[in-house]
Structure prediction request, 650 residues.
Amino acid sequence: MKIIVLLKRVPDTEAKILINQEGTGIREDGVKFVINPHDEYGIEEGLKLREKLADGSKVTVVCAGPEEATEAIRTALAMGADDAVHVCDPKLADPNPFTVSEVLAKAIQAEGFDVIFCGKQAIDDDLAQVQSILAEKLDIPQVNNATAFEMAADCRSAKLSRRIEGGDEKIETSMPAIISCDKGLNEPRYASLPGIMKAKKKEIRKKSLADLGIAEVPGTGRSRVLKWLPLPKGGECRIVAAEETVDAVRELARLLREEAKVI
Amino acid sequence: MLFQFSEEERLIQKTVRDFARRELAAVADISNRDGVFRDDIIKGLSALGLMGITIPEEYGGVNFGTFSLAVALEEISRICPSTAVAVSVHNSLANHIVLKYGSEELKAKYLPRMASGEAIGVYALTEPDAGSDVSAIRMSAVRKGHEYVLNGAKIFISTGDKAGVVIVIARTDPGSRTRGLTAFLVEPGFPGFSVGKVEHKMGLKASTTVELVFEDCRVPSANVLGEEGMGMQIALGSLDGGRIGIASQALGIAQTALDEAVLFGRERTQFGKRLVDFQMTQAKIADMATNVDAARLLVYRAARMRDAGENCSKEASMAKLFASRIANAAVYDSMQIHGGVGYTEEFRIERFFRDARVTEIYEGTSEIQRIVIARKVLEEYEQMYPV
Prediction:
């Protein structure tokens, strides 16, 4: 079985995000980048499935991202993935979900696939679009926000759960399918030291858009980010204090009416 | 190259940091309060491959070097310096000695179990009258046929009661102070071996420190490390790695002292200002941060030199001396910034304050480090400017 896991390189969840001066993106200096945490659930699920099948199935990481994404890919290989495809092209500098999906679809088709796992969304832009566009392009079913996954014995279908407001939704889907993974699905393993050692020798196949037979960057003009703006600063906080609470309330009401002019 | 991390080294740091912040942090406060050594934490670290970090692949290790070990020990010590003791002694001393001096049979028999963490390695050198002065070791080892019979006691042995493999330095020749010592690999299951007094220490309470008693303890002669009479050489030859290990531990303690000082000082307000806005607090923070960085560079240099196979005795001693000293200064200043609450068990700095102290004592006291450094420096001047 060919198990594909998708990976995006995102700023560390603990990183302090600052918008760059031009408003075209974030300031990357001093920011640590990691595997998108939701993608880690996807990687773990792929590895678990491979271990359960134990039939020579392979887990292949597919990532579209800058040169620096190599480290995140290497981490996934150290966790246990077998090999990786890294689509890396200067033309992908400012991608939108449609672009990424088109590129990933081509790369995945070239690899062949029986099931695809990915995170439910990337924690940087929170768009959660790629899995759905990808499902459409590959013409396969999608199940999003999975919290349980069980492949059928014949590998032609799978049973899943999704946590929704107030309950669990049980789903059955045919295979191949794309599964986006949510917290609770599993506990991602650490990249062990033997894993890190072995990852050194695993193959990362670098691909350009031309290698995938893509001449024009797809999806440009469909949507683009106009500008990135920092959050507005919180206003000054003033504490109205008085001996008697009733006086403080009276003063607060006066301020709201006369200064803030909101009542 | 000296201070730059390779991709693998960054991944190792991340793995150990993640493990320490999740698994270790969840238990460290309580296990240190109650004085409990957590086997499950060592099991977890073993599963990551950390107990065979410098052992070659053919013996089940991962063949990374002293630098990777130093980085890992710093990350562990930032959360639980007690845990770092077992990991450092196992890797820098026990694994190192078996790998370097063990016969092919001994290596094949013991290293895979040590690399997997199944057998924790400990190092038994200190006696009531011998520590810094290795040549004063008295514990006797007398050859009888294919065995040696060991008699005596070793004290202050870290993790001694959890050992799967004990490296023991004992006296085979009372006639020669320096050539009369021999190193043995002893299994706790050998007849005549027992654990004696358990020490109650000021700090590092989640790490056990015990006496090991040898009463007619019979050790196969095949378990001699190196050759008879090489004990002194083996003991002295293992110092550098051990010192880099403890320097890394001290570095981790210092880093946490700084972290806690800044985090606390940002929250705490006095006279209408945050503590970190007072210049006197800032001076402490500046000193701590500069010292931590300087210590880290010294540790990295010594580790890189050791990995390159260069003589690094002076550099290892400098790293150990400086890191342990600034760790103690840092916990002192950090507690000062914390004020009264820092003196209570509610805040982590109280534990680190106690843990820091021993880094200036064990694995060679600061005084011994200065002797090593001064001797080397004088030698170098002797060569540059002969009298």
